[in-house]
Structure formats: structure tokens, C-alpha cells
Amino acid sequence: MRLNPAILLSLLCAPAVAQAGGIYKYVEKDGTIVYTNVPPKGAGRSARRVEGEFRPAPSPAAPARVTTSSAKALTTYDDYIEEAALKYRIPASLVRAVMHAESAFDPNAVSVVGASGLMQLMPNTAQEMFVKDIFDARENIEGGVRYLRVLANAFEGDMVKMVAAYNAGPDAVKKYNGQVPPYAETQAYVRKVLSLYFQYKAKAELAQQGEARTSP
Q1: pTM of the model
Q2: Which of 46, 143, 202, 215 stands the most exposed, by the fewest C-beta atoms within 10 Å?
């Protein structure tokens, strides 16, 4: 999927642009889904307006914690998370932490650099992870978890390096010899995701203990 940076800026400057000015969606011959705020030439009647709003993604460095409301928001995506986590052998609690940090569970979140959806995939990364529709929740989650598996393979399962690479890119982590790059945003992001990971992990363990006590 490809998104024009100019389109992304217009989305961020006017959060309700999808309703007011109109966002169009069409499918190319190879199956790639394209979003644009200009009726595409040549797409003809195949282009259609997208309902809903695109909103700014939260700052990667913004503090976050697991609350009753955030845990409730996750239930919509639990099945997709568990499915992808099992398929790619990534801890579900890490998936939840990354999603929480990246989008605060907003499937229409868009960042100023073009990352989109629940797992805030960049268009090129989404394409490499075989994501056709970056705003489809299931595809976005699968693509994000698949990318975490790629990073896990690259950094031998080191969660700190994986999380740093998810934010700054694997080349940045390699450039600094496997250390968290000295970027304020990335360092804050790593602390944020790891904190959320341990919160979600503890929550999952408590749930398992409760199920064990109530099982016959």
C-alpha cells in the first residue's frame, strides 16, 4: 500500500478530512490498496470514498499505562492478536504493548511520517509483510507481528533490540552495535513499550491464575 506524504499531512492537519473533503480508496491491478484525497485519474468508478476519520497517532514518547479502559479497548482485537502471536511465535503481551504505544488501539491512526493503523506500519514495511490494506485491522496486526518476528530473528530474540528497531529501524540498532540508539524518542519508546509489556504480562498471568482456581 502506498500513501502520499502530502496526503498524510492533510489528514493530520484536518482530522475530519475523511468526512469533510473526502478520502478515496481504490485497488490497483496487483491488489495494492491506495488511499488518496484526490479522485484518482484512471480509477473511474472503481474509486470510492472512505467512511470515518483518520487521526494523528500518539507520540511514541508519550507516557502510557494499562488501565481498565485500555484493556477493554483491546478486546476488539484479542483474537487477531492471539492468532498472529501464535503463528509468528511472538509474546502476545509484547504485541499488545506495541499496539498500545503505537496507536492507542486506533485503527485509523496516522503518523506524520506515514506510519498507519494499529501497529503503525510504514507503507514499505507493510508491503514487505504482504499487507494489502494497511487500515484493515487483521492485516495490520498480522503485518506488525510478522515484522516483530523478522526483528526477533535479526536480533536473536532480544526484546530491547527488537523494540528499538521497531521504532528507529534495524539499521539504526546495528549502527550502534546492538545498543538502543541515542535518540530521545527511541529511548523513551523502548521504556514505554517494555513497561506496557510487563503490565500486560502480569495481567495475563493473573487471568490464568484465576482460570486455574475456577477450573474443576
Answers
A1: 0.75
A2: 215
